[in-house]
Every structure is written in structure tokens, then in C-alpha cells.
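Weekly sync, protein design subgroup
Attendees: M.S., D.O., the rotation student, P.L. (late)

Item 1: inverse folding check
M.S. brought a backbone from last month's batch and wanted to see whether the design step gives back something sensible before we order anything. D.O. pointed out we never logged the input encoding, so this time it goes straight into the notes. C-alpha cells as presented (397 positions):
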């Protein structure tokens, strides 16, 4: 998988590798060399017993030109290459935890961890006629050869969804059964007494999908905060944290545009924090904001679950998050946080909390209790059960 993204999917893979390596031989398959020491610190995992297998995106003869191929064609070639390389490892169980993968299962027993069913259709970014024709041709190539989402998903023994929201769309689009395995969420621990200060926090990967438009919608939060001088006068600050790949020019430029727009305002950016640093930031934050999915009706662009929301809640930060996707499964309105539909509603509910200390403390306490539904131990036990059931099938063969 693409482990350098340092997001929720990467965390899920590394936690599984850590947990399963205590009783099984575990291979972590990645597409380039990784710094295991950094990943252990960043995700608070132990990879000492995990065997790292590097399988590049393309075979050697295509390494120099692979990334210059049209993306769908490149992915098609990559999937076929990975299938044969992974099959040669002779694994008993293969767990595919890659977003949007169309990789056929290379083993008899396998698990596909679906973050969202990619068969909904391409996210509409371009209306270019040539690109539309190309997309149709690639779809036909995938169908004829069998390397299509539907065929790929049917080749797995078990499909898991990371939320009820995701499982609903798996049923709608694939008509296949799926098991609910909420994504791994870290318990950040109750903040030490006196730690909480007037910080509004958002945590999410700085990833641009177009000029000044991001997957996590940090630009929406920044604009909303800048326009509310009342919050500034009350001493509140906005902190935006998350991973940023400096090699991704579009995302780096997007992050730079945010920093430029934030000049002169009480806004702080935190890029690529290690686990202990991020935990300290969660402990300081009193309110947590989230906006992924705002401005789009496309189901794939919503927050499919929202693990950073849970992590913020575990540290007592009160969530005020968008009323869409998987966030509705995490936050209960006026019980452990608030849901919003418009930036005006986001600000109104934020000011309400900022001016009512008792309400802030009450919701904070309940947020901590609610977060326990999604802890790392719950994820690990659920995945251990899925794997154990599959191994019993293997023993019966």
C-alpha cells in the first residue's frame, strides 16, 4: 500500500501488522522503502516482528515511464503486476487495505477493507470529451479482462466496511454483503487538569484535488474562522494539523496558500506531527472542527467515518462536525457535540460553546465516554475475529 500518506488507512494497516505479528508471520506489502522507526513513532506501533516486502508500482521495464501513463491505464497494469507478485509469496490470507483498489484476490482466503466502494463512478472533476472517451475505453478493457471493481470484490472472501455509511453504499452499488469494522481510533487519554485552552482544532491530511480545493476542506474552516472576530476577541485560536507530502506539488501549494491566507490571524499550522506531539495538541484543544464533504453531494467525497473526530473526543475536545457521512455515527447532537450544515451554523454553535463554560465541560465529559466505542482494542478484537473465522475455513479444507 501507499504507506507514506500517513493517514487513517495507513494507521489501520500498521496497527493490524503490529497486532497480528504476535501470533502470525506478517508481511507488510508497500510500494517503496519505508522508515519503520519513524512510522513506529508516528503511529505508536511496534513493527519489530513484521516482514517488510517492497513491491514497486510498476514492473522494472515500466519504472521509467509508468507515472507518465494515463492514470487508469497505469493502475490497470499495476494491479496485474501486483497480483502475480503477491501470489508468489504463498500467503494464507491476504488483507487488501488500499483505497479504490481493483486488485483481484491473489490468495484463496482474503479480506478487502473497503473505505468506500469505488464503483460509484469517477469523481467529476473534468468535462473534457477526450478524457470521457478514454474513461469509457478503460472501463471496457477492465470488463473484458476481468479486472473490474465488481469482479475484484467478488474474489474476496470477506468485505469489511469502515462504517454503517460505507456498508450502506457497498450494498447499494455492489449488492454484496459486508461486515462492519469501524476504523482504528486512538484513545488519546483524558487531558491532564488545566491543559485545555482556547484552541479549535482540525486534523486532516493536506491533500489538494484541484487549485485551492482540498479533500478535507481546511479552506472552508479557515474562511469561517477568519470572518468571526468575536472568536478572536474571546481569545480563541484555530489550529490546523495533518500530514503533508512535500513531494506532492499541488498539495504543498495548497498548504502554502492556506498559510498565506491565515497571515495576521490567530491561526497555527502543524505538519507531520509525531504521535506524542499530536496527542498533546488534542489535549490542549477544547473544540474540534471537521468539514470533509462540505459543498458536494458526491457520496465518495463525504467523510466515510471520521477517526480524527473520535480521537479528539477521547481527549475531551467537543466536536462540531459536518452533518454528513460517517460523522453522524459518531456525534449525537447536543449530547456529545454538534453537527452543522452551513458555515453559519458551524460558527453559531462554536460561539455558543465558547460562551458557555458549563455546556463545554458537560459535552466534553460525554464526548470522552462516547469515544470508547471506537478504540484501538475494539478494532483489533474485531479484526482478530474476522481473521480467526477465515483460518477456521482454511483448516476445514
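Designed sequence read out in the meeting:
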Amino acid at each position: 500500500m501507499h504507506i507514506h500518506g500517513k493517514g487513517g488507512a495507513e494507521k489501520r494497516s500498521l496497527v493490524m501488522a503490529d497486532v497480528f505479528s504476535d501470533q502470525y508471520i506478517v508481511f507488510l506489502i508497500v510500494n517503496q522503502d519505508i522508515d519503520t522507526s519513524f512510522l513506529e513513532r508516528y503511529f505508536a506501533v511496534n513493527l519489530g516482528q513484521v516482514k517488510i516486502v517492497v513491491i514497486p508500482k510498476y514492473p522494472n521495464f515500466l519504472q521509467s515511464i509508468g507515472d507518465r501513463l494515463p492514470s487508469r491505464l497505469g493502475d490497470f497494469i499495476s494491479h496485474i503486476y501486483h497480483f502475480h507478485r503477491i501470489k508468489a509469496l504463498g500467503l494464507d490470507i491476504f488483507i487488501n487495505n488500499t483505497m479504490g483498489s481493483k486488485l483481484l484476490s491473489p490468495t484463496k482466503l482474503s479480506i478487502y477493507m473497503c473505505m468506500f466502494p469505488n464503483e460509484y463512478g469517477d469523481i467529476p472533476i473534468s468535462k473534457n470529451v477526450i478524457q470521457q472517451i478514454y474513461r469509457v475505453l478503460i472501463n471496457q478493457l477492465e470488463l473484458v479482462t476481468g479486472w473490474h471493481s465488481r469482479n475484484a470484490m467478488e474474489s474476496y472472501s470477506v468485505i469489511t466496511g469502515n462504517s454503517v455509511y460505507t456498508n450502506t453504499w457497498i450494498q447499494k452499488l455492489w449488492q454484496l454483503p459486508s461486515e462492519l469494522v469501524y476504523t482504528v481510533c486512538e484513545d488519546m487519554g483524558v487531558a491532564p487538569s488545566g491543559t485545555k485552552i482556547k484552541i479549535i482544532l482540525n486534523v486532516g491530511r493536506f491533500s489538494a484535488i484541484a487549485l485551492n480545493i482540498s479533500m478535507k476542506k481546511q479552506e472552508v474552516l479557515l474562511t469561517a474562522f477568519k470572518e468571526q472576530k468575536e472568536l478572536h476577541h474571546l481569545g480563541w485560536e484555530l489550529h490546523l494539523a495533518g500530514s503533508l507530502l512535500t513531494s506532492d506539488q499541488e498539495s504543498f501549494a495548497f498548504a502554502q496558500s492556506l498559510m498565506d491566507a491565515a497571515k495576521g490571524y490567530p491561526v497555527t499550522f502543524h505538519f507531520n506531527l509525531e504521535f506524542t506531539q499530536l496527542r498533546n495538541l488534542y489535549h490542549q484543544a477544547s473544540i474540534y472542527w471537521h468539514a470533509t464533504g462540505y459543498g458536494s453531494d458526491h457520496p465518495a467525497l463525504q467523510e466515510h467515518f471520521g477517526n480524527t473526530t473520535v480521537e479528539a473526543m477521547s481527549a475531551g475536545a467537543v466536536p462540531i462536525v459536518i452533518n454528513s457521512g460517517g460523522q453522524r455515527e459518531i456525534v449525537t447532537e447536543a449530547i456529545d457535540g454538534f453537527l452543522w450544515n452551513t458555515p453559519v451554523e458551524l460558527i453559531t454553535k462554536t460561539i455558543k460553546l465558547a460562551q458557555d463554560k458549563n455546556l463545554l465541560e458537560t459535552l466534553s465529559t460525554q464526548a470522552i465516554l462516547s469515544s470508547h466505542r471506537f478504540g484501538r482494542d475494539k478494532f483489533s478484537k474485531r479484526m482478530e475475529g474476522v481473521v480467526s473465522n477465515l483460518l477456521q475455513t482454511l483448516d476445514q479444507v
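Discussion: The two ends are 30 Å apart (CA to CA). Confidence is low (pLDDT under 50) at residues 120-126.
Action: P.L. to compare against the previous round before Friday.
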